[in-house]
Amino acid sequence: MNLITSAEGFLAFLLVAMTLIFGYEKKYPNSKWFKVIPSMLWLMIIVAVAATLHVWDPNAEGVIAAQDLMYTTFLPMMLIMFMLTCDVRDILKLGPRMICSFLITTVSVLIGFTIAFMIMKNWLPERAWASIASVTGSFVGETINMRAVAAVFGVEGVDFAYAAMMDTIGFTVVLSVAMWIMPRREKWNKIMKASTEGIDEIAVKINASMESHPEVKEAPSMWDYAKLFAIALTGTALINWFIPFIPEVPFLNATGWRVVLGSLLGIALGLTPLHWSKGATNVANVFLYMSLCVAMSYSDLSQCTSAPAFAATVLIMLVIMYIVWLSLCKLLKLDCFTAAVGFMANFGGTSSAPAIAGAYNPNWVGFGILLGFFGDLIGTAVAVCFGYFLQYLSML
């Protein structure tokens, strides 16, 4: 029996689940539950289990309306808020060596997934390419990019569950390897014949830019949140008004255009004083978690019969990726800090790259922040293009 059939009930369930999970994490930050499985994944598991148990009626008019609201409104609002926090001009201060470190990881991921997909495609379901493209968004940028790519390719339910599973396996492995490499930095630099000369000078420029607006570290007020919602909703309304006038193209539907236009509008606003708005990341995260919940709300875990094949695919990808990545690091003589931060900026984005950078030198945190933003900027476009490439390979 389906207990929930209304839009209000459906959205209330998702918000209550979010409140309980993140509230528990805040109260018990050292809980073993969250050391093994991140809170975001716990949230998606709860929603997927609820969908499998038919807590809501997937065919109810109210539930469908609430799910549609995510694509028409919450998705572009999320992208506008996330992109608003990044000023692309600051990324240029990273220097070519640091950006190169990021891009060789991106290339390694794409090569790894291409070979793994060709090896495993006979054991994977027909639309496996779309799930892999979605998780590629996370492996180049972060979760926001995975959700945006999934929206472009219509990856929902079980297909999205596969992407989330690969994301969890991949992030767990690469973070463990990054932590293992960190205390061996001197040995790394000796093997790679690398040097950290010049990093301190670049760090000074980055930190000076970030510290020029100390007010952004203050807690946002009600006015700040009202301003952010006004920006996000106004931008979304303009995007939805404009989409019907765009000529039809075979590779982008209305949701795809919302992703593109929402991202571009956010990037443009990031070049204005609105870039320093307080609370934008908080607002974006609420919409991100809601979006992830909606994606999982179509799931029926009893149908996840291809989980072993997807797990094998991501493990094969990781092995090939590391071989390519280490070879390129050796070729370019990248030092341990530059290689590790560029690597984690792909996989963890702004959530883990600054932590890795700070572990090397507290004054170098800015590298991790800006490289994470760089992944946010290019992750969706790279993964969407890669998705179409995988779709072509699937037909061979």
Description:
- By secondary structure, the protein is mostly helical.
- It is 74% helix and 0% strand.
- The chain has 18 helices and no strands.
- The termini are far apart.
Please outline the helices and strands.
Blueprint: H1 7-27, H2 32-36, H3 39-52, H4 61-84, H5 88-91, H6 96-120, H7 128-140, H8 143-153, H9 157-181, H10 185-192, H11 199-210, H12 222-242, H13 254-269, H14 280-296, H15 307-332, H16 336-347, H17 353-360, H18 365-394
Helix count, DSSP H or I runs of 4 or more residues = 18
> What is the element string, with H for helices and E for strands?
HHHHHHHHHHHHHHHHHH
User: How would you sum up the major sheet?
Assistant: none
* Backbone CA Rg: 21 Å
What number is the mean pLDDT? 85
Instruction: Provide the structure class.
Output: mainly alpha
User: What share of the residues lie within helices?
Assistant: over 70%
Shape: globular
Low-confidence sequence ranges: none
The proportion of residues in beta strands is under 5%
- Please report the total strand number as a whole number: 0
End-to-end Cα distance, whole Å, is 44 Å
